[in-house]
């Protein structure tokens, strides 16, 4: 994915410097040539040897290197991308102000390559107006910022400012370089269970948490795709994913009707209600009016509509939630809905389907082939689904 790409990896002095080691490993595994640069502060947190051992060449720390007298311009000029992870408040300030205080800040000023900066610091520092002003300045100059996350910080306290996960950082690098295996593709994913109103306060809902759909969206974005998630639930939004919030089957159908015609891949992981009340009551139905008779009608089958209108070259993926005859039922749905791939899960099995962090699936393709993926985390299921999508694309486009 990153073969032939030369990436300068700048590491500054924060506790999150240890995560730069994992970022480095992932970039090298992806085929990149990684040139590591550490600041003096970074050396308080990790040893040069660690990074040198994993990177493509030894760590550089100084402007004054007799073997390479002008490293500050050479490194920046030859880079395809400069990545700083973690970036301290000091580094952000120096970069925003155009100060060349050490090898890394010199390299940042001497490059015309895209720059990705991943700040990490305590919440108070991150929220300080000076730091936020520096971030705004860097953004306005086209620097890509990978926002820090919330979580446990160096002193054990919880807050915003923790370095983004290595996979998020690498996903950003892939996106900026346009290098992921799904780069240039538009992917639409649905997630969560629809909610159909009975009255002003009550709904017909189901147990879908949205975890499986979000995992697919996150994995597609990590592979470089442009991803829109049509979702009924609020979970942390994966990096690079745009979310469209919906509630009912009708709203989901309208949103997908807009997005699907221009998508290369559509994945319906949402659990759409099959029935809804014919009419929602105005206000709240009162208990003292007796037990209400709720008349139901079928919802539109969104996936059937998408299958009938599928543009040439699009890969359309459904999910089948079954409690018996998994493969037979799921294959019937695949055929009726004109899908390229059906992801069948037996939601009566332990750890499978609704709400769990895990899932186990059978991947049924329109050509009749089938692959099973044993119980694993939902991100791994997402990887298997998208690997299959890419195989299908390779044979049909
Ligand atoms: O969200 P999680 O808690 O992580 O759980 C994941 C999941 C169990 C919801 C997911 O793995 C899953 O199985 N999603 C599909 C659930 C479902 O609605 O299955 P189904 O067999 O009833 O429907 C088949 C397909 O038709 C689905 O892709 C569904 O989105 C689609 N459909 C169904 C009804 C309808 N009116 N319109 C549709 O488009």
How does this structure look, described?
- With 397 residues, this protein is of the alpha/beta class.
- The protein has two domains: 172 residues, Flavin prenyltransferase-like (Rossmann fold, 3-Layer(aba) Sandwich), CATH 3.40.50; 211 residues, Rossmann fold (3-Layer(aba) Sandwich).
- Helices cover 34% and strands 24% of the residues.
- The chain contains 13 helices and 19 strands.
- The strands form five sheets. Strands 12-11-8-13-16-17-18-19 form an eight-stranded mixed sheet, with helices on both faces. It has a five-stranded parallel sheet with strand order 2-1-3-4-5, with helices on both faces.
- β1, α1 and β2 form a beta-alpha-beta unit.
- α1 packs across α8, α3 packs across α5 and α4 packs across α7.
- The longest helix has 19 residues.
- The protein is elongated.
- The model has no long low-confidence stretch (mean pLDDT 94).
- The structure holds ligand PMT.
